From TrEMBL:
The name this protein goes by in its record: DUF7869 domain-containing protein
Organism of origin: Patella caerulea (Rayed Mediterranean limpet)
Pfam family, one: DUF7869
Domain (DUF7869): residue spans on this chain: 10-186
InterPro entries: DUF7869
Length: 271
């Protein structure tokens, strides 16, 4: 199995240190629309709506990954939330170089320890690993979707939705701390250090009189697995799976053209 490519499951966690509790989004490869900022925004939006505590202010701490966290779309989303008063104030902070371990890494390590001692064949097994990784219930599993294509966490096209209304902050990588306030729609206050007197105030909106709507963006359908990947999983991986999970994770591939994709496992019209 070392030389094979098993069915993949991504993990995205957000930890609320005050409780403490971490929501872990489990992303089957058929549900992975992207690994960039769109996905991060979708999971954050779902977390605020479904796991929020009714807070009006939030302080978010992230690593410096520019493709996922430290980019213009994340700033635009925070501005969108505050201008529509979904939060009255948001602080967005990025860890400094060589200090990149924080609360989510603690929760991830607990999951890893349990995972190494557990046989996993399907998504529900991974969810059980997350749930049982702590005796106090710190880790919470949240499936993004199932192997058969059922979606629990909808994906929205935030990038296309926000692009017409906002402009990028130049030199974003030079700053570590950003703040947004509902009293100043579209304005971001950026600092290189938390106690720095060098403060940059930048209006992210192209036109402060033209705010983006509060309505959610268009839904992005999950990509599913193409026929080549389905065939590989069926031929190479199925035999390593327990009998109960074989038809859930590794069903017989769809008899369709190469450019068509199943949303999950076996779809209508498949043999």
């Amino acid at each position: 199995m070392y030389f094979l490519t098993l069915r993949k499951c991504g993990l995205f966690g957000v930890c609320c240190e005050g409780i403490p509790q971490q929501v872990n989004y489990l992303i089957d490869e058929s549900m992975a629309s992207s690994k960039g900022s769109n996905s991060v925004i979708n999971y954050l939006h779902h977390l605020f709506d479904n796991y929020g505590l009714g807070e009006k202010e939030a302080e978010l701490h992230c690593d410096n990954c520019s493709g996922q966290n430290k980019n213009r779309f994340i700033l635009w989303y925070m501005a969108w939330r505050t201008m529509h008063k979904l939060h009255s104030r948001i602080g967005l902070h990025f860890l400094i170089v060589d200090h990149t371990k924080f609360a989510p890494d603690w929760c991830f390590e607990l999951i890893k320890q349990k995972y190494r001692r557990t046989r996993v064949s399907k998504l529900e097994d991974i969810a059980a690993v997350v749930r049982e990784s702590t005796v106090t219930g710190v880790n919470i599993p949240q499936l993004v979707g199932l192997e058969d294509g059922k979606v629990y966490v909808k994906a929205y096209d935030w990038q296309t939705f926000l692009q017409p209304y906002f402009r990028p902050l130049q030199g974003i990588k030079n700053y570590q701390h950003f703040s947004f306030d509902s009293s100043a729609p579209g304005l971001v206050i950026a600092r290189d250090c938390s106690d720095s007197e060098n403060v940059t105030r930048f209006q992210l909106l192209k036109d402060p009189e033209n705010l983006p709507p509060v309505n959610l963006p268009p839904v992005i359908q999950p990509p599913g697995l193409d026929q080549k990947r389905q065939t590989y999983l069926y031929d190479q991986i199925r035999d390593f799976c327990d009998d109960e999970s074989k038809d859930i994770c590794y069903p017989k591939p769809c008899v369709e053209t190469q450019d068509r994709r199943c949303r999950g496992g076996r779809a209508k019209g498949c043999s």
